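Example record

The entry below shows one chain as it appears in the dataset: sequence first, then structure tokens.
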Amino acid sequence: MSAHESYGTHPEYIAEVLDLLGEDVLLLSYGEQRAFAEASLNRFEPIGSARLNWQGVEVTARTEEFDGEALAALLHTHAAPDELVIVFWDNLLIPTIALPATLASRHAETILDQGPTCWLFLPDGGILIEFQDGEGFTAGSPPTADA
């Protein structure tokens, strides 16, 4: 099965987030997911399968905290309240979601509880936040497309 065919086939993996947010969360299509990934995640060199190489990238924040409160603080710092937040998971079987920053901040703990790794992209501000459970957050601007 191709990535396109398998993408988003297991939304039940994030059922808690989907149930909590209902109509306020959008499940992105494969094409939408790929477009946002091209503007963010795919501009980084990977380290293994679920970690980004931030070397040489403009990092705006690093935290050792790895809870919802720390994520909410990062969102308050980097996103306008009505800004769209794109949440990528470390598995293409799980659909990428989009929601307003105010909701992402309010439900940050629930979002983080869905898995050990995720990335939140703020397309208006051009900021990506990487979450690694047990290690904290890194936030910064993705490299330029020609980097």
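Notes for this example: Helices lie at 3-6, 15-21, 30-38, 68-78, 101-106, 108-112. The chain has a mean pLDDT of 93.
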